[in-house]
Amino acid sequence: MKRKGLVFGLVISLIALLGLNIFAAKKETGRIIVGCDAAFPPFEYLDEETGELVGFDLDLMRAIGAELGMEVEIKNVSWDGIIPGLLSGNYNVIASGMTITDERKEVVNFSDPYINAGLVIVTRAGDDGIKGEQDLAGKRVAVQINSTGDLAATEMQQEKGIKIAEIKRFNHATDPFLELKNGAADAVVMDFPVAGAQMQASPGLYKIVGEPFTTEEYGFALRKSDTELLAKINQALVTLKANGTYDQIYRKYFGE
Ligand code: ARG
After folding, report:
1. Are 195 and 206 in contact (CB under 8 A)?
2. Which atom of ligand 1 is found nearest the CA of 173?
3. Which is the closest atom of ligand 1 to the Cα of 146?
4. Considering the entire predicted model, what is its pTM?
5. Is 96's C-beta closer than 6 angstroms to any atom of ligand 1?
6. pLDDT tens by residue, 193-243
7. Which of 58, 76, 98, 122 for mutating ligand 1's site (highest number of atoms within 8 Å of CB)?
8. Domain map of the chain by residue range?
9. pLDDT value at position 8?
């Protein structure tokens, strides 16, 4: 009898140990590794004071992680190549102000949209010559490479017959603004909230021309095979919108 009890006890401990191991393994995969190009304030950027990667997308991703009981690790990667990096498994979510487009949907899955944005034309503050896309004829336009701003400028040039003199494509979204500031470009095509943040950071330098001329929605991008995590993220988004967390993060970066 006693012996049986001992064996029973051992078996139970073994199961408990195995169980713990399984639990630990689950915890390991319970990590969301996020890829972002952190030069896109206010959505993702480096906080110079704390050295931390912050921004609307990253706060939201961290809140999603907290909601799901998953750890969130952020990787700062280059925008051009951010989708290949996802596909090759360097991270499992792109949170990088990425507009949901049909073209991208062919290679990745997007979460439900988490914010709206649109493109604007930005000029130097004193420049009154550019009032809309037609006025970009003969001008040098700076964009971030492979962004929707790049696509829009390319479309103006190739499909709308607007004779843009040159489209200058840069790796970082902040570079086109430097180019504009230095007089090496005449206009920038950029996401409206990002243009707004650049204007705030350098008062008096830039001017936004009119209203956004596109309507875009940002989504988190995942590998097509990652349907389980996608569903969880969408579920967490619903919860965070309902419980006020989303609004809190929104106000932190965009005010009331
Ligand atoms: N919304 C634009 C796009 O999807 C630009 C995004 C750029 N994001 C970034 N973190 N640089 O193409």
Report:
1. yes
2. 11
3. 12
4. 0.88
5. yes
6. 999 999 999 999 999 999 999 999 999 999 999 999 999 999 999 999 999
7. 98
8. 31-116+217-254, 119-214
9. 53
pLDDT (average), residues 121-147: 97
Q: How many residues belong to the chain?
A: 256
| Token representation of residue 209 | 């021309």
Residue in 98, 119, 116 with CA at minimum distance from that of residue 107: 98
Q: For ligand 1, say whether the CB of 98 is within 6 Å of any of its atoms.
A: yes
State residue 24's pLDDT score.
Answer: 42
**Cα–ligand 1 centroid distance for 98 (angstroms):** 5
Whether 95 is in the pocket of ligand 1, judged by its Cβ within 6 Å, is: no
Pick one of 2.60.120.10, 3.40.190.10, 1.10.3720.10, 3.40.50.300 as the CATH number of 31-116+217-254.
3.40.190.10
- 81-109 pLDDT, tens digit per residue, is 999 999 999 999 999 999 999 999 999 99
- Regarding the domain with residue range 119-214, which homologous superfamily does it belong to in the CATH classification? Periplasmic binding protein-like II (3.40.190.10)
- Tracing tokens 């950071």 back to the chain, one arrives at 201
Does ligand 1 have an atom closer than 6 angstroms to the CB of 192? Answer: no
Counting Cα atoms < 13 Å in the Cβ hemisphere of 112 gives 11
Q: For the residues 11-18, what does the mean pLDDT come to?
A: 49
Beta strands 187-191 and 115-117, pairing class? unpaired
